Amino acid sequence: MILPHRGHFLHLPTVLCRLACSGLMLLAVLAGAPAQVQTPIRFVVGAAAGGSIDVYGRIVGAHMAQTLGRPIINEIKAGANGNIAAQFVAEAPADGGTAWVGAQSMLETNPVTYRDLRWKVADFIPIIKGIETPLVLVVHPSVPAKTFDEFVAWAKANRGQLTYANYGPGTLSHFLGYQVSERYGLNFTQISYRGNAPQMVDLIAGHALFGFTQLQGAVEPVRAGLLHALISSGERRSALLPELPTFADIGQPDLVALAWFGLLLKSGTPPDIVERFEAAAIAAHADPDVRAKLVAQGFDVSGQTGQAFRDSIAVQTERWAKVVKATGFSAD
Questions:
Q1: CB within 8 A of 140, min separation 6: which ones?
Q2: CB-based contact 135:172 (threshold 8 Å)
Q3: 134-255 belongs to which CATH class?
Q4: What architecture is domain 41-133+257-327?
Q5: What is the mean pLDDT of residues 298-302?
Q6: How far apart are the first and last CA of the chain?
Q7: How far is C-alpha 17 from the geometric centre of its chain's CA atoms?
Q8: What are the boundaries of each domain within the chain?
């Protein structure tokens, strides 16, 4: 059989062969065409990789990526106590593709300790306060105090002779130590370390006798008897050290101070994107598996959102501004 084709004839087998080849070529093109790539959402972290805030971002981001249908990666922009990360996000497009994994010190104390910031809190939309964690006042076993009251009595008997160890200038450890010293008339001299780890090394060795430190780093030394924990700065007792009283327990609620991590988007992000991002964040922090992982890190899950989160930042910033002014501290 033959078919007419523009004035000449082709044999049917030839036609079928050409059609088959064309089909195979089309399938090859389709198979080789790349699928639409979803641009990752960047969680910008203002601290070293592997630290607590980095771990928090990874745990929460993994769940949110499933909800949003986009991969989420942590991008480390460490330095200047989070200011480099904040500025990076403040200068990024307001499209929901870049989020800041912020922290208490970055949002509440940086604005009052740095005079020449290139960003401001108003540059961001607070989405969710993800976790909170208290500080713990620990003492070396050579200190003759097993309770906070005994510590205050000992410190008063040695007023003006004691050195208080904080884990960094301008941190919650620094300013909470100042507040306690002022409240009880203890007249501490402060010494600042470059992080929680070196502070703990000197506390355990007895080179420093006492200081407020991070709960997560204190649990094992306290359980091992290397340090004694006297009081927590939390609102309620921690499941990790349930026997440890809090400032709220002893009638000093204005000394309650919590470190926290949370998520923020850039101001100007379209409302529909903010709504989807917030819904995914809320779902992540409500998920039992996510919560279990966060609790295992020594965190208390907060989940505070919206106006309550914004108001909390404003109130605490005002609180720390007064303390910073009283200490005369400047990070510049």
A1: 203, 204, 206, 208, 209, 210, 227, 228
A2: yes
A3: alpha beta
A4: 3-Layer(aba) Sandwich (3.40)
A5: 92
A6: 91
A7: 63
A8: 41-133+257-327, 134-255
